[in-house]
Write a structure and sequence with these properties.
A hairpin with a 6-residue loop joins strand 3 and strand 4. The chain is globular and about 60 Å long. Helices cover about 35% and strands about 15% of the residues. The chain is an alpha+beta fold and about 525 residues long.
Length: about 525
């Protein structure tokens, strides 16, 4: 699948084909890009349940031609009762477990993001489609059942040992106690009822209505510190995204607590190193991308947290002088030592651009596969475990504090290029996200590859991501043997993975060219598709 999909009136890309089709149906009915993305977000939460859920967080990057980009931060904070003392009383003094009620310690913000986006669409873009329409596909899929994907079946089997005993998991995600096989029909009737309620009562019901009371009661019974007042206090926030001045144009990404600054730093460092002068796919290309990643990760690990606690504002980290200083630290012939601890995690990224050029880059997640593993009995909501990224060490950068936002690997990307093109792009995959964004952007923009070819080309991954635990430099087996050998000779700890390995992420990209033609690519490693007209 190397041919890009093209269109003129609208385009959507998602890691599951039905989500892209839900977005396209809204565009065909006259909906705008924001409305289309709400529909896609609802559908993907149902059809890719191992990757995301309405019990997680979400982030939006939005652009209207002629206007500065905006963003929606739909990240939930730690419960007021989620103190280090609370964990110590339960015998936990170092790390927060990744599963169970103790891991479900932050508010799920993604539904508030849908609500904020819907309001913004109505007020700023004249959006007219109600939530009952935008969530209709998702409600139907949940009630009538969806075919289990290979990805869902394999991940259920792989994680069953740590999840089967979590409250609500077995009755929700297993089939008569076993792993549902790929192609079997998977029903989520409680989720259908919950989405139907949100569609009719509004997204605020998730936080301050009858649904909120049900969620809070079930969370408490599952051993979570979250309570009704934590849900009631939550609001999505409209923020200004980060911006990197690049030779190709203005690049944007999400503000902290996400690692959006990392993705921009990598591209800034490569721009300072004149990456365009080395052949795409060569050992020089991969080496420089990996070394830039190491520099950016070190900045992240020293600086990036809830923005209220940061010593240096994230935008200042993107200053040209700072970017050049990081580039100067890179040895073009030798790999720097890597003892870092990268972040795992699963996610879905999706993009939409409508016929008027309005663009959305969107990401939502429950962190690890199936999040905390708990499924609330009254609503069928699988709650995230994003809060296990907090540390219980009082001296740590991301130390747990009540009301603090957790560090996020999530970061949707958007670029406004100097030649008149607009680009939305992104991927799932923990710390693979900045690395895959680097591959997508450099291949499509620096080297001019067609969009689908840039998405499909062999990728690399330094460190861990979902389903991986080693900190090696992983290379898909389609890389030339000479490139692999040369990278090892430069000091990289190389590991060969599958030809189209799911661990390097489910990526996607749409470019709107200056003449209005849309070009998109979906990841052959996923169940995704580009839908256009």
């Amino acid at each position: 699948m190397l041919n890009s999909i093209r269109g003129t009136q609208g385009m959507a890309v998602a890691p599951h084909a039905t989500a892209a089709q839900s977005a396209l149906a809204v565009l065909r009915e006259g909906g705008n890009a924001i409305e289309a993305m709400i529909a896609a977000a609802a559908t993907i939460a149902v059809v890719y349940p191992h990757m995301n859920s309405i019990g997680g967080d979400g982030f939006w990057l939005l652009h209207v031609p002629g206007e500065a980009p905006g963003a929606i931060d739909a990240c939930g904070a730690a419960a007021l009762g989620a103190t280090r003392a609370w964990y110590a009383e339960r015998g936990l003094t170092r790390n927060i477990p990744a599963r169970g009620g103790v891991a479900a310690n932050t508010v799920a913000g993604t539904i508030s993001g849908w609500g904020a986006a819907h309001e913004l669409s109505r007020k700023a873009l004249g959006g007219r489609l109600p939530l009952t329409r935008l969530l209709a596909d998702a409600i139907g899929y949940a009630r009538d059942g969806i075919p289990v994907t290979v990805s869902q079946s394999l991940l259920t089997a792989a994680k069953l040992g740590e999840l089967h005993a979590q409250p609500g998991f077995a009755e929700t995600f297993l089939d008569a106690g076993g792993v549902p096989p790929a192609g079997s029909r998977f029903f989520q009737t409680r989720m259908a009822d919950t989405l139907e309620r949100i569609a009719k009562a509004g997204t605020a019901d998730f936080y301050r209505g009858e649904l909120a009371q049900s969620l809070a009661a079930d969370l408490a019974r599952a051993g979570s510190p979250l309570r009704a007042h934590d849900l009631a206090a939550h609001r999505a926030q409209l923020v200004d995204p980060l911006q990197l001045t690049h030779s190709a144009g203005a690049l944007h990404n999400m503000t902290p607590p996400t690692q959006g600054v990392v993705s921009l730093l990598i591209l800034g460092i490569l721009d300072a190193l004149n990456i365009r002068e080395v052949p795409q796919g060569s050992a020089d290309y991969v080496h420089l991308c990996v070394e830039a990643t190491k520099q950016a990760f070190r900045v992240r690990d020293a600086q990036v947290t809830d923005p209220r606690y940061m010593q240096v504002p994230a935008q200042e980290l993107l200053a040209p002088g700072h970017v050049r200083s990081l580039a100067q630290r890179i040895d073009r012939r030798h790999a720097a030592p890597w003892g870092g601890q990268t972040q795992a995690g699963d996610t879905v990224w999706m993009g939409v651009i409508d016929g008027a050029g309005r663009a959305v880059s969107f990401i939502q997640s429950i962190y690890h596969e199936f999040g905390s593993g708990i499924v609330l009995p009254g609503s069928g909501v699988n709650w995230q475990n994003r809060g296990c990224s907090f540390s219980l060490d009082a001296d740590a950068l991301n130390v747990l504090e009540p009301g603090r936002k957790p560090f996020h690997t999530l970061n949707p990307a958007l670029a406004r290029l100097a030649d008149g093109r607009t680009m939305v792009y992104g991927t799932m995959g923990g710390d693979g996200q900045p690395q895959t964004q680097c591959a997508l952007f450099t291949r499509a923009i620096t080297y001019g590859m067609p969009v689908q070819a840039a998405v499909s080309a062999p990728r690399w991954l330094l460190g861990r991501t979902w389903g991986q635990s080693s900190e090696t430099l992983k290379l898909e087996s389609r890389f030339d043997a000479g490139v692999v050998r040369e990278l090892a000779e430069r000091g990289h700890d190389v590991e060969i993975i599958g030809a189209y390995d799911e661990s390097v992420g489910h990526a996607g990209m749409i470019i709107r060219h200056a003449d209005g033609i849309l070009e998109g690519g979906a990841d052959p490693r996923s169940d995704g598709a580009v839908a256009a007209y």
